[in-house]
């Protein structure tokens, strides 16, 4: 819990931000103090709403002088609680809303931190370009938040995470100084890469105020299918085939178990079973490339080869955009589809692709044996080894009794992940939820190095103090 913020500091912040630039109104603050699943709720004495980098710098500078802590917040879609303050000043980027530049020669889009991912997609399209990061929260998640969590999503297989998609960053460092690192270079070997330190820093090394993002050509030829597999091992083999048969044109490769499809069909309006056979495992495959009609041809050839080899047992290709969207809704609706079933234990982990089948099988059998009646909903981005193992309560179980065993379940999953050479946080970050646990898996050498970097940039630890090491 943060220390009380002196009235004099609040008065200085108000003066620096002007009337529209702050709030202490409980109703205005309320939606920013709860996480969308109601898993975390927080408190703050003051909401700062800067509308420029200069105003962000003023807020950070005042807080630094007074030793007052700050929690930055973008769209509040983070899944590990890092954006929810506990007594700190809450600094929202909601008024940093300008797309500053789009340059086709440089293939770059320069945007302020509070612009949402969906708005970046739209802006890129106006220049006949595309920003490929894609995830279910894109209507609310902001560029600042996506950078700070090094977000991944469904297209990592082809384009990488935010780390691979950011060319430059402008940020206010914990000192209150503005670092203008808004370069648009593809090559820049001039010492430590400060922007990469800020990517994935979860607000601990400063406030990201703007970024230059890589743009890509629009892919006009796109095809989406749902394919049935008897096992996770078969799905992994299908990925190998997909990469080689399409020459690397696989845009997404998402695994969903039978339980996940059934929950989506039961709880999300307008969805139906994509495959009559209701297979134990399904894969959503999207293939895309630039030549008209070629993605469909690539996908059809891939599915024919896979059927022939016995890697898949059935498949359905979307015949139009509406059908493609319906297939994607099954995958992207997984979190929403779980909600009516009670509180789920969520595990966002990564393992080497070659270990995915062993991981899902061992995790599922171990969890089911340890916790009678629980249901394991495993799904995720097979193409980059990122699996979500979500554990739902047994039907009719009291929510609180399920929640009370969450840490025990997490330990089982995370010990297994680490034993397979994986990571206990693939794409959501550590936040307040996983910081202590991650520390228990890291070596003393790594922790010392990470703490030294933080202490050098933020000796008072004012930036998001409860998050990271
Ligand atoms: C339905 C759903 C699906 C999701 N799917 C995915 C997915 O597939 N892949 C994935 O990676 N994530 C996913 N997420 C998680 C979430 O959308 C991402 O973590 C996103 O990057 C957070 O962006 P935000 O603007 O909401 O940040 P917030 O939630 O507001 O903040 C997240 C973290 O970043 C910090 N932060 C925010 N803005 C700044 C800034 N400008 N400067 C410094 N620090 C800042 C905060 O302090 C906090 O630690 C999903 C979330 C939901 C709700």
Description:
The protein is α+β, with helices and mostly antiparallel strands and 469 residues long. Helix content is 37%, strand content 20%. Flavin-adenine dinucleotide binds at residues 36, 71-79, 82-83, 93, 113, 135-137, 140-142, 144-146, 148-149, 151-153, 202-203, 207-208, 335, 427-428, 431, 464, 467.
Short description:
The chain is α+β, with helices and mostly antiparallel strands and 469 residues long. It has 18 helices and 18 strands.
Cα radius of gyration in angstroms: 23 Å
The gross shape turns out to be globular
How helical, in percent, are the residues? 25-40%
Question: What share of residues are in beta strands?
Answer: 15-25%
**Helices and strands: which structural class?**
alpha+beta
Number of contiguous helices: 18
Distinct ligands:
flavin-adenine dinucleotide
N- to C-terminal separation?
17 Å
Give the integer mean of the pLDDT values.
96
In which order are the strands of the major sheet placed? 15-12-14-13-17-18-16
What is the topology?
Blueprint: H1 7-17, E1 22-23, H2 26-29, E2 47-48, H3 53-66, E3 70-73, E4 89-92, E5 99-103, E6 108-112, H4 117-126, E7 129-130, H5 143-148, H6 156-159, H7 162-165, E8 166-172, E9 178-181, H8 194-198, E10 207-214, E11 216-217, E12 221-229, H9 232-246, E13 250-257, H10 258-267, E14 281-289, H11 294-309, E15 314-317, H12 321-332, H13 334-338, E16 348-350, H14 356-370, E17 375-381, E18 386-392, H15 399-403, H16 406-419, H17 431-441, H18 444-457
Parallel strand pairs: 2-4, 3-4
Antiparallel strand pairs: 1-2, 5-6, 6-10, 7-11, 8-9, 8-10, 12-14, 12-15, 13-14, 13-17, 16-18, 17-18
Helix pairs in contact: 1-3, 9-11, 14-16
Flavin-adenine dinucleotide (FAD) binds next to β3, α5 and β10.
């Amino acid at each position: 819990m943060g220390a009380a913020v002196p009235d004099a500091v609040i008065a200085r912040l108000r003066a620096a931000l002007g009337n529209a630039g702050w709030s202490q109104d409980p109703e205005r603050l309320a939606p920013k103090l709860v996480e969308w699943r109601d898993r975390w709720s927080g408190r703050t004495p003051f909401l700062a709403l800067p509308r420029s980098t200069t105003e962000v710098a003023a807020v950070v500078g005042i807080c630094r002088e007074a030793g007052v802590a700050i929690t930055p917040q973008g769209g509040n879609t983070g899944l590990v609680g890092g954006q929810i303050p506990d007594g700190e000043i809450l600094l929202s980027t909601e008024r940093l809303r300008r797309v500053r530049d789009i340059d086709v020669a440089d293939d770059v889009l320069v945007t302020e931190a509070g612009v949402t991912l969906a708005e970046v997609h739209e802006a890129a399209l106006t220049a006949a370009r595309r920003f490929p990061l894609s995830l279910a929260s894109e209507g609310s998640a902001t560029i600042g938040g996506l950078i700070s969590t090094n977000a991944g999503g469904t297209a990592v297989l082809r384009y990488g995470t935010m780390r691979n998609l950011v060319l430059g960053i402008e940020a206010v460092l914990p000192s209150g100084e503005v670092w203008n690192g808004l370069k648009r270079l593809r090559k820049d070997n001039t010492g430590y890469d400060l922007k990469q330190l800020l990517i994935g820093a979860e607000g601990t090394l400063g406030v990201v105020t703007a970024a230059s993002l890589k743009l890509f050509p629009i892919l006009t030829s796109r095809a989406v299918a749902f394919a049935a597999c008897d096992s996770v091992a078969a799905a992994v083999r299908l990925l190998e085939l997909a990469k080689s048969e399409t020459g690397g044109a696989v845009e997404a490769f998402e695994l969903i178990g039978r339980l996940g499809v059934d929950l989506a069909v039961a709880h999300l309006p307008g969805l139906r079973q994509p495959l009559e056979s209701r297979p134990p495992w399904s894969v959503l495959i999207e293939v895309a490339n630039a030549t008209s009609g070629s993605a469909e041809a690539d996908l059809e050839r891939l599915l024919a080869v896979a059927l022939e080899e016995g890697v898949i047992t059935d498949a359905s290709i979307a015949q139009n955009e509406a059908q493609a969207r319906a297939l994607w809704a099954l995958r992207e609706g997984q979190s929403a589809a779980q909600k009516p079933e009670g509180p789920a234990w969520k595990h966002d982990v990564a393992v080497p692709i070659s270990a995915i089948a062993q991981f899902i099988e061992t995790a599922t059998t171990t969890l089911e044996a340890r916790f009678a009646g629980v249901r394991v909903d495993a799904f995720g981005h097979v193409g980059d080894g990122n699996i979500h193992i979500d554990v739902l309560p047994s039907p009719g179980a009291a929510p609180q009794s399920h929640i009370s065993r969450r840490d025990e379940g997490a330990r089982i999953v995370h010990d297994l992940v680490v034993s397979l050479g994986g990571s206990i946080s693939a794409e959501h970050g550590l936040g307040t939820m996983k910081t202590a646990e991650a520390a228990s898996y890291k070596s003393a050498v790594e922790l010392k190095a990470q703490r030294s970097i933080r202490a050098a940039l933020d000796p008072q630890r004012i930036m998001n103090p409860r998050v990271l090491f």
